[in-house]
């Protein structure tokens, strides 16, 4: 079974070919970071234009690298949401055109499901499982009893963790994207600055990072008004320690309460070294729970993860129609 995956939800134009749901034959990503860097964030219109320019090239490269043709492809997995609507539409319409021209079934995929299923490219999933999804737009704990069944048991009430990282990075005058720069800086600093941890009400698995982001900004501004200086690496380390502690503790507690076999880390912030290390340390004593952390190239947006999720959905008989659209606010629970 050969599945062609296409991903254009934000600022990466990506295509990949996956064999039998697990074997990566190609995984091509055209990044737009350099184009958006000067604006300090993703410009939706610019992202869409870049996707239009790159989509055909990236798909052809993925097929060539995989040494297959469209005649070999059994299904086309395409991200239908969530994401930037203009960016999503480029991928959806490219997939529909290929599907129509070559009589290939379409398989719509939820972007976050793709991030979760990136872990299946490393090892087989064992249910029930818990996924900690941490990215620029999402911070969620998702419980799964079986393939394709997603239950959100915790989510951010305001800023996602990745969004907070980018805003704090801008405050520290670090380049875009800010997350990796904060992570590197934090490894050099001392997390001694008092910053809040938002635990919310007792037993809650929801997250909140808006207050923490504001606390970092206020700490820096107050110091400047007093004529004092705060080491950027110490502030970065303290901020990261707060984020990582809340993410780790809530994930461990949820994993034990729901009696899961596996915990999966997913999303762009899954590349954060501080978070990866903290989770490894937290789950080391819990031998009954297997912690799966994807390699760095499968953490950020890519099409191999979309094809991996699409492979499962294809086998379950899920198909898209020629009138399928882009859904920027697609809910994973009703996907």
Task: Kindly describe this structure.
It is a single chain. The protein has 335 residues and is an alpha/beta fold. It folds into two domains: 2-116 and 298-315, Nucleotidyltransferase, domain 5 (2-Layer Sandwich); 127-293, ATPase, nucleotide binding domain (Nucleotidyltransferase, domain 5). Helix content is 41%, strand content 18%. It has helices at 33-37, 44-66, 85-102, 111-117, 161-171, 178-186, 210-225, 232-257, 273-283, 303-315; strands at residues 2-7, 12-19, 23-31, 75-81, 106-110, 129-134, 139-144, 151-155, 262-266, 290-292. Strands 3-2-1-4-5 form a five-stranded mixed β-sheet, with helices on both faces. Helix 9 links the parallel strand 9 and strand 10 (290-292). Helix 5 (161-171) crosses helix 6 and helix 7 packs antiparallel against helix 8 (232-257). The mean pLDDT is 96.
